Every structure is written in structure tokens, then in C-alpha cells.
Amino acid sequence: MTASPNLMSNILTILIFLPLAGAFVLFFLPKENGRAIKHFTLLVTLVEFVLSVPVLLNFDGATAAMQFTQKVPWIPQFGIGYNVGVDGISLWLLMLTTFIMPIAILSTYAAVEKHVKEFMIFMLLLEVGMVGVFLAIDLFLFYIFWELVLIPMYFLIGVWGGERRIYAAVKFFIYTFVGSVLMLVAILALYFYNYKVTGVYTTELSALYNLNIPVKMQFWMFLAFGLAFAFKVPMFPFHTWLPDAHVEAPTAGSVILAAVLLKMGTYGFLRLAMPLFPVATFDLMPFVTGLAVIGIIYGALVAMVQKDIKKLVAYSSVSHLGFVMLGLFALNLQGIEGGILQMINHGISTGALFLGVGIIYERSHTRQISDFGGIAKIVPLFTLTFMLVTFSSIGLPGLNGFVGEFLIMLGAFKTSPIAVVFAASGVIFAAVYMLWMCQRVLFGKLTNAHKLHLTDMNFREIAYMAPLVLFIFWIGVYPDPFLRKMDATVNAYVQQIHAKHQSALAASPAGETLLARYFDVRK
Amino acid sequence: MVSALSNIHEYLWLILAFPLAGVVLNGIIALVAERPLLLPADGHGHDDHGGHGDAHGGHHETPAYRKLVAFIAPGMIFAAFVVAVLSVLQLTRMPAEARTVVQTLFPWIQAGGLSVSVALQLDPLSSVMILVVTGVGFLIHVYSVGYMSHEPAFARFFFYLNLFMFSMLTLVLGSSYLLMFVGWEGVGLCSYLLIGFWYEKDSASTAGKKAFVVNRVGDFGFLLAMFLVFWNFGTLNYTDVMAKIPSLQHSGILTTGLATAITLLMFVGATGKSAQIPLYVWLPDAMEGPTPVSALIHAATMVTAGVYMVARSNALFMLAPFTMGTVAVIGAATAIFAASMGICQKDIKRVLAYSTVSQLGYMFLACGVGAFGAGIFHLMTHAFFKALLFLGSGSVIHAMSGEQDMMKMGSLRKHTPITFWTMFIGTLAIAGIPGLAGFFSKDEILWRAFSSDHGSPFLWAVAAVAAGTTAFYMFRLIFLTFFGASRMDKEVEKHVHESPFSMTIPLMVLAALSICGGWLGIPAALGGSNYFEKWLEPIFEGGHKAAEAATEAIGHGAMAHHDPMEFILMGASVAVALFGIAIAYYLYMVRPEKPAKIAEGNPNLYRLVYNKYFVDELYEWLIIRRIVDWSIWLWQMFDVQFIDAIVNGVAKTVRSAGDETRKIQTGVVGNYAFSILLGAVFIVGYLIWR
Questions:
Q1: Predicted ipTM of the assembly
Q2: Which residues of A touch B40 (CB under 8 A)?
Q3: Closest Cα of chain B to A296: distance in Å?
């Protein structure tokens, strides 16, 4: 890959601001020509994707360091900098974002008719926020981008959503807002603590990682950050915004929400909560793991009894993200690599599931499972695609989902075998709810054909499903390139977090209970 | 001296590549050529008899794409069979201790200490499996061309069937537990797709789903077993695991407890895939699939995967006496339990389905008493005669225009002589008549169940009674179907015909194998050399050695091979089989009115057995219903009533605060950011000031 060095040294900044520039141009385009607006947005997201490919190709998998970094003082008196970089953890999330955006835009061609211009502006702003979150290595910058994502999503649901869109949008807002406030509090506390210890005001992550934060403070900060991220993931029992948001959101919104937005939560754990507060991470591991496992089973059980396909897929996300959290908190190489890979897999599979639901919804204007039945006969290509995605989602070996789930459970088995015994039962339930839904929607006697107006996938729909299918097979059959890019980063990450945990506890008396450690409660 | 054949093992991958090529080609044909033909005419499909136009296609010229499929699908399997034969032939020319060939293709999953490659392992055990799978698989493909000739979705069928062959060969050729698992779930997928092949039938799609889900329950055990193996052995490759057993035993890591945990979990997987108690319930329902599928997947190959897995892990199983006992008891119990359910079934395929469950029980019984070789031997002979019986029943159903109820058959012998004679041979073989394949393998199992260190006279007795029952229900099937007076519909009787050669030739080949297949393993007691057992010895000696190291026991069952007891038991088992046949003859030939009377005389017992002991209903009521109810409760009470009530309460409070909320919802970024900041500063200020 020969890219000009100048381009490469600014590449991350270009990636962050290209969609913003696109949104800016859109602002001046006449709103009447919806078609042109869609084409233009598609073009912007495609260029964005093409520009992100050199990052992947030039990314050095042998080093754990941040790459393509760029550092510009921004508000120097507060120590806040514009500070971006990419490592083996964020690389694939960046790629997922730039990859899924054009697909989401393509899916709106027939679905979004009103306020096309505003819709596309919000989509591009969303991309700015998402790319920024994954690339920011400055705490304040991260927070800005984190908040930036919230607003367009709120409007996507609230304006272009279904019947109960306002309720869903407000619910989404409340959860995320509470989380944001908690995180901001913790950020400020961390910021002032750092100043107290070092005498320097900074929000640079690499500096904050070096802090040796007292364990009691770690506990509260982990809780604040952790709650903000747990809302976003969402972890049980903070998941109830997700089904409503998904059901009401337009297809493209659901795709982005599932594929990327939820990953901001898991990524937040990985990038901030875990490495900043390792002692609390280790101590609260059983608790987080427990919630993750409950989420896996709870999400699966509740998904099983849903009547609305989209809601079913939404609850399945709760279950799948439970797996990701289980992997991350295994705190070993297999678990974390599996967790990262599963974030990508979930983005691809669940994104594809929502696209599939969108395809039949656009034609039939219903998502009720009971309205369908036997449609395999009239939409064979759709059936084939949907079944393939289904099997990817339930972790069939040879497809992408299995590799992630296997690594997660393998890793977690080392740290908490009991949790894995329960998590593995989620694998059974996944087969139940997905195949039962498929049976009721796709198979059986075709009863409702006149009302449904179904036609098979058209060229545009094939075009945006095909890349997803490609990766479903690729990651399933040959995940090696994906895993090798993570190795160095994750390896160093695991070692550091264990070392920091050890050194932080060096002073603690052996056999200290958690109550004593955090609340001064002695026997 | 380098000839082309001397390095055939470098082409081992072709055994997988040929079926895979078939998958791709048939898949493309199904999508491009066949799909448009199957769409309902007006695109909305209110006429759901869309397939009917094609159903009469037999009268027209066969479309070119169907000819192509009929050539590609069996052709690819034949090519795989040829490579398999050549590979195994070369293996026989190698010294016994060197008969393990591993071909690594590419790295699959590597993360930290985990390193699993896509690699194939040819050794005596997998060579038996690939020969059975490709050989019987090829015959069934040929048969399917005839059997499915009126099927509109012809290409789709062979797409699935080739995919099954690919998965099954991955299962048996993979060099690690993880690759076995890939094939394991892959065959489960194909089973799902093929059971539900006629997806418009609700019973078919339900049965497919049931098969997949029940198998997943088993896979749960398999997965956990793999985790235990990996974290204790540091590898999932067979050769590495086996090689590490002595040193891990020595270092005290591989205790009896660990071995028991691993093997019990593996066996949970095996009970799912191989339809043993308590996970056998999916197999009878699997008969919803086309009959060649029942023969290939649900009789000859896939369902034996559990036996293969246990045999593959024999060195671990031998270290876990408790697991061995469990395997033997479950095997024997399944053998007799399923046989008893076969007695009253009226559907010809269901009889064979229960028979399969029962015969699989024998194979596990063999493994459980340490006679892994005998288990694999029976796996092979069973593949021959049960594939034959299923294909024969398919030929009967074909002749009867789709009728499967034996009560509406009778006297078919005259109309379908080839089907009758080949099925009769198969029945003799499964009944254990001396000289035929089933006799040698079943008798070996019975003898070892009695004589092995792990065996007991009780296990022998159960298995012997099951053998008698088998002879009874199989002859009942033969008598009801082929003998006596015709009970056919007049309309059906007019069209009864023998099947075409593409179907009868596979029947004849399998009949020949059902006779001769057992001669590979004639026991020493009958003057044979038991070539089969010798061939597998390198695989199983490791297990015996490991077990000896653990218990320091001396001598095992094989030493007692010339016991006169062996002849006595052999005679007894033949007598039991003949007794079963005699009862069947009496009830269905001499006094055909008698069975109905017996059923009337014991209505409750009859209902209990006819309804398969109501196990399905019990599972439905005890497990499925509970889980669904509980899930609904969780969703309605916990999600909606509890958590959302809190969230909505918060929302309400905020909203009633009025202006502030409206500001938030204006979406003016400034206000919004400002309020966050203000709140946060306030809280932090409070914390610091405090």
C-alpha cells in the first residue's frame, strides 16, 4: 500500500472530520432532491471507508503502542488536548464503523422519505461521534465524542421512529444522560486527583494510566464509569431502553445502534474503566461476570417469548453483549480477544438481522411474527440470507459468531468456570429463540401472502447484504488476520492490568476482605 | 521409487474438497436455475400449490440443470470415496505403529496458548469412518437421484446432502476436538435443514428445530469438555492430548475425577448426537425428512458420531471407571427401551428409527465395557444393514405412493421382489443370524458385555433380551409389509411397482455388504483372525495402557477369548433371536388377528408403549412449558412492571418539573451541554468540599 506519508500522518483526523465536512456540505444542499442527498451521503461514507482501509493495511500488528497518533494542544490551560490514535483494540471497531455506515445509508434508500436531508446530516454526525470515540486517547475528547453520539441518535429515534418513538427516545435519553453525568463526575474527580498527585492538569489517557489511584477511590470511580458504560452496553438490569429504542428506531438507526453504539459501552470498559481502575476491576469481576451471565440467559429467555421480530433481535443483543462482557472480564488473552472479535461479530450479524427485518417490514409494514409464516416460498433469496445470518448469530462453527463465543467461553472458563457453565446454556437458548422465530416467519404454510406484498430482495438489498455475508464466512473460516492485529495490544494490556493490580495490592494485608478494603468494615 | 500413489496422503484434503465443490456447484444451480422455477406464478404466492406444475415434470424431458445435479452430487462423493480408498490402502502398507498421518492445511483459531489448525488426521479409526461415510454416502446419493426425481427442489436437496457429507467428513477427519465440533455442529445444521426439507409441513419444520435444539443440549456438554481439556492439557489436538496423558497422570493433574468430568461431559454430547437416553427424543421425529436422509444421516453416519467420539477418546474414558459404567448402563438401557418402543409402531420408518436408537445403544454398551473396537465394528455393519433397511423402506414408500403405515400394506413381496429380498437380508443381519454382518458385531458386543472387566452378566442379559426384541419387531415389519393379505388401498395397489435401478442397485450392493461386511471381524473363537480388531488396535492400546497405569490391574478381557462360555453365549443369543422371530411369525403370520386382541386386552400398557411412554409429553410439560411461562413472567413482571416502572417514574418526575425538561428536549446543544456540566460541577464541588 503506497499512501502518501502526509495523508497517513493525518489519516485519523481526516477520518473523524470527513463526515462532519460531509454534513456541512449537506446543510447547503437543497432539501427537495432526496435522491441526490442520499447519493451524496453514501459517497461520503464510502470515501470514509476507503480512507480507513490504509489504516488497517498499514497498521503494525507487532506493537502494542498507539499508532497514527496525532497530538494538538487544544485547551492548554486545562491540559486538554486533541489526542488521537489507534491500537489493536480500537482498530477493528473503527473498521466496523466505517464499514457499516455505507450499508446503513443504502438501507435507507426506500425507507426514509421525510426530512431526508436532516436524517442524513444526523447520520453523518453520528459517524463523527462514533469514529471519534474509538480514536480519542484523551479523556475529555472521548467524552465530547461520547456525548456527540447521543444527540443524533435521540433525534433519529424521536423523529423518524415508529408510533411510540417519543417514549423510546426519552427513555434512551434518560438512561444515557444519567450515565453521562456519572461519567463526567468521575472524569472531573480523576482530573483533580491527577492534579493533586502530579501537579499537572491533563486529560491525556497515557498519563492517567500511570496513576496509582487509591483502592477506595478506584471503587467509586469504577462504579461511575462502569454504570455509564453498563447503560450503554446495555448490561442487565439496565437494558430496558434497548428493546424500545430498537423497535421504534428506523432500520438504519437500529443497525447503527446495534452494530456500533452498544460497542461504545464495552469499548469504554476496555479503554477506560478496566485499565484505569485495575484493583476495582479485579475485585468487582465476580459481580460484573455475574451480571453478564444473567444478561446472557435473561436476554435469551425474554427474546424467546417476544411477538415482535425486532424486539426479539433487541433482546438477543442483550444476550450477546453479555457474552462480550464475560470475555472482557475474563481478563486473559483469549477472553479479551474473543470479546473484541465478538463485538465485531455482533455488529455484523445483528446489523444484518435488523437489515433483514427492515427488508420485510418495508414491504409488509408489520413486524409481528404471527403475521408471517411460510414466506420462504415467495422470498427464497431472503430466506437463505436470513437463515445464514441466523446461524451466524447463534454461533454455528464455520461462521463468525462461533470463533468469538468460543474464545470468550474458553477464556472465561479459566477465571470463572461456573459462569461459563451457565453462559453455555445461553448457547442452547439462542438456538431456541432464533430457530423458533425463523420457523414461524419463514416456514410452514403460506397463509397471509396477499396482505404481506412480499417480493424477494432487490439488487440494492443484495448489494448491502453481500459484504456482511462475506465477513460472516471470512471471520468464521479464517479469523487469523483479525486476531493477529490484536495480539500485541491485548497481550500488553493483559500483562499491564495484572501487574498494576499486583503492585497496587502489594501494600494490602493478605486475605483482606472487600468490605475491609473499600468500606473499612473489619471483623 | 516415487509413484503418484506413494504420496496420496498429501491429497487427503481432496476428501473434503470434492463434497465442498459439490456444495458450491449445487448451491449455485439451486439459486440460479431452480429458484425461479419454484416461485409462485404471480409473485405473491397466494397459490401455495406452486410446486405442482413441476411435480408432473416426470412426464416431460428432465431439465438440463437436474441432469447436471444428478451427475455432480453423486460424482463428487464418488471422487471422495476413491481418494479415501487409495489413502486407506496406502495406510495399510505402513507399519502398524506409524499409521497416523496428519495433514495441516491452514491455521484456524490461535490466541495465546490456544492453537488450532484446520488439519486432517488419517489413522485406523478415521479410515474406517471415511470409508463408511463416503461409501454408504455414495450409494445413498445414487439412490436419492431416483427417489427424489419427482421433487421440485431437486438441486436444493443435493446442495444440503453434499453439505452434510462435507460436515461429516470434517467431523471424522479433523485432527482436534475443535474441528470435530465444527463437523459435529455442521452435521446438526444439515440434519436440521434436511429434516425440515419440506418446510411447508409444520411437523417437518418443528422436527428439524427439535433435532437442532436437542443436539445443542448435548453440544453444551461437548463445549465444556473441550474447555476442561484445553486448560489441563494445553491443547485440543488428539495426538497431543493422547501423548500428554502419561505425564499428566504422573504429575497428578489428570486425576480420576478430572477424567470423569471430561468424559461425562463428552458423553452428554454423545447422547445428543447419537440419540441416547435422555436425549433420544429427536430421532423418531427426524423421520419427517426424506427417506434417503433418514438412511444417510439418521442411521448410517451422523448418529454414530457420538460412538466415534467416545472411541476417539478411549484413553480418557478408560481412566474414568464411573463414566465407563454410565456409558454401558445408558447404552444397555437405551437398547432395550428403544427396542420396546419399536414393537407397536405402525409407521415403517418409525420402527426403523427406534431400531436405530436401540442399535446405537449397543455401540455405547460396547464402548462402556471397554470394547471400543467392537463398538466401531458394529457401527460399520449397522451402517450397511440399517442404510439398506431404510432405503428399502423408502422403496416400499415409493411403491406405495407415499404410504408409510404398515397396517395398509401387506403382500408387497410379489410386487417388489428386489426390495423384499434385499430388505429380508438386512433383517436377517440385524436380527443376528449367524454368518451375516450383524451377527459378528453384535455377538462380539454381547460377549464382551459379559466377559470384560467392565461387563457383567446383567448387562449381557439386558442386551440379549433387546436382541430378541429386535428380531421380533424387524420380522413383524417384514411380515406386515411383504406377507399376508393385501391391506392396500385399491387405488394405491394399482400403481404399486418396483423401484428403478438407480434405487435397487444401491439396495443390492448394501445387501451384499450386509452379508460380507462382518467377515472382516470373525472372532478367533470361530477360527477367524478378527482383522478388524487388529486394524484398530493401535488406537485402543493407549487406553488400555493408561488404565493399567492408573489401576495397576493386570490382564484384561481379551485374554479370556477362548473361554467355552463364548460358544454357550453365542448359542444363547442365536436362540433368543430365533425365539423373537418365532413369536413374530406366530403373531403376524399364523394368527394375524392376535396382536389387536393383545392390545385390547392390555389397553393401558398398549397406550403407554404406543405413545412412547409419554416421554415427549413429559419433557414438554416439565421443561419447555415451565421455561416459556417463566420467561413470559420475567419479561412482563421484571422488565415491564419493575425496571421500566422505575425508569418511567424518573421520567415523569423530570417531566413534571416542567421548563427544565422542555429545555432538554429542545435539542439545543448548548443548553444541553451546559446543564450536564452544571450538574456535574455541582456534584463534584459537593464531593470535594465535603
A1: 0.92
A2: 377-378
A3: 13
